Amino acid sequence: MIVAFSVTPLGVGEDVGEYVADAVRVVRESGLPNRTDAMFTSVEGEWDEVMDVVKRAVAAVEARAPRVSVVLKADIRPGVTDGLTSKVETVERHLSA
C-alpha cells in the first residue's frame, strides 16, 4: 500500500517547516520507501508498518505542537510493490508518447 499524508502543527505560527521536518525524519528513518514533496509525504509498505510510521510521525509533531491536523490518502493494492516508482513511470511513459 501507499499512503500519502500531511501533518500540520497548529498553534505554532506560520513557519512550520521545523515541525514538519520532525515528521519526515521519522518516515525516512523507518527504512520504508518514501518520497516527500511540497504538500505530502508518501510511504510504501504493508498496512501495519505504514500506519505505525504515520502514527509515529504524528506523535513527533504532537510532542511540540498544541494541536495537529492530519490529511491521509491510501492506495491499497495487495501484491503491488514499488508503486511509488512504477505509477510515476507509467504516467511519464504516456507523456513521452
TrEMBL record:
Q: Which SUPFAM superfamilies match?
A: MTH1187/YkoF-like
The source's domain of life comes to Bacteria
The residues covered by the Thiamine-binding protein domain are: 3-92
Instruction: Please give one Pfam family short name.
Output: Thiamine_BP
As for family, the record states: Belongs to the UPF0045 family.
Protein's name according to its UniProt entry: MTH1187 family thiamine-binding protein
